Amino acid sequence: MEKVRRAVKQIACTPPSQRLSTLSAFHLSLIPLLSIASSLYSVALRLRRQLYRFNLLQQHRLQVPVISVGNLTWGGNGKTPMVEFLARCFADDGISPLILTRGYGGADEAKMLQRQLHRTAAKIGVGANRVAIAARFLEQYGYVTSPGASQKLLSEEKPEILSKLDMIGIAILDDGMQHLSVCRDVEIVMVNALMPWGNHQLLPLGPLREPLTALSRADILVIHHADLVQINDIDSIESTIRKVKVSLPIFFTKMAPMHFFPCRDVSCKLSLKAVDNMSVLCLSGIGFADSFVQAIKRMGATYVDHLDFSDHHLFQLKDIEVVRTRLQELESQYGAKPIVVVTEKDYDRAPEVLEHFKPYEVLVLCSRLQFLACKGSTEDSFKKIMGEHLRQRSAGIYVLGGSGFHSESGRH
């Protein structure tokens, strides 16, 4: 199955004009079947949109403003780092955010968010039915309807355990662009600068979850990994976007490495210099591993090798044997034990699996989303536009503060 996943991903990244010259016979044999599946997927997409358009499928409005963070293509677009960034902004300003996430692949992204945000007021609801999950959390914690006004609690039981800080002030939909059952007040679409549209085909023949025309629904677009491409690549992506929606605000972000921690001790922070003059094996099961590998290469390692698996991949015994064999080869080649480096998402998926790589050291790279000052766009201007969209729903509940989003009449 992993072989098929890899083949499908390679097909999705290959322009049709280059298929015959770059793809193997096995890859080419899959294309007719993938084309049929892609056509059926397209029909299903259009039908689903019509069902919502004519109210045969219902959209639900939550009692708090909703921000959707999503994308048009599969993994590696920075959705979850953006969700964490937004949650921290709101939590730092006394607004308790509720993150609603589907929980794919053993809920590795949800586990990562829980670990990253456990000291904040953020709450994380995991499940396929995000309307029901939201209702449960709003009932349990209550919600803020407006600052300085009456605060309605959905649950009248044990009101003494509820505090203003606990009450939910905003909901964030992780991977929410295609989750049409929840009405949203701000639609943020993330685009991977390293592979924005692939071969421009719909799933599973290509990486697109929807046609590019769906960008017309976006309120804000963020080009992620913008630091890893040339300015002409950025210009090309922006040109494609402007053909769909001329006035769409565009921002630029990167993943900034912060520190490592050893898998045996999450509380221990190690400098990024921990890989200086070392041979490193990057091990990952994420949507787009190229950016991760490039980040490690920039840190001064003597040699960087990598083993990439499909998104949300849970390492099996056979995978562990492959990794150990590769580590032994690197040790023989360079005369010293190499270091294994994984992403936070890989760690949180199954930290116990990483124990199988002893006596080799396993480090976890911690990174955070950062905005780039590019083409007049900055983090501050992003927050300003966010505040403007939220004011339209909340009648002035949120305005931009120096470090995030504030209430006009004070902190909640």
Automatic annotation (TrEMBL):
One of its GO terms (biological process) is lipid A biosynthetic process. Coiled coil: none annotated. GO terms for cellular component: membrane. The chain crosses the membrane at residues 25-44. It comes from the Eukaryota. Keywords: ATP-binding, Kinase, Lipid A biosynthesis, Lipid biosynthesis, Lipid metabolism, Membrane, Nucleotide-binding, Transferase, Transmembrane, Transmembrane helix. It holds the Pfam family LpxK. Pathway: Glycolipid biosynthesis; lipid IV(A) biosynthesis; lipid IV(A) from (3R)-3-hydroxytetradecanoyl-[acyl-carrier-protein] and UDP-N-acetyl-alpha-D-glucosamine: step 6/6. Its EC number is 2.7.1.130. It is an enzyme of class 2 (transferase). GO terms for molecular function: ATP binding; lipid-A 4'-kinase activity. PANTHER family: TETRAACYLDISACCHARIDE 4'-KINASE, TETRAACYLDISACCHARIDE 4'-KINASE, MITOCHONDRIAL-RELATED. This is tetraacyldisaccharide 4'-kinase. It comes from Sesamum alatum.
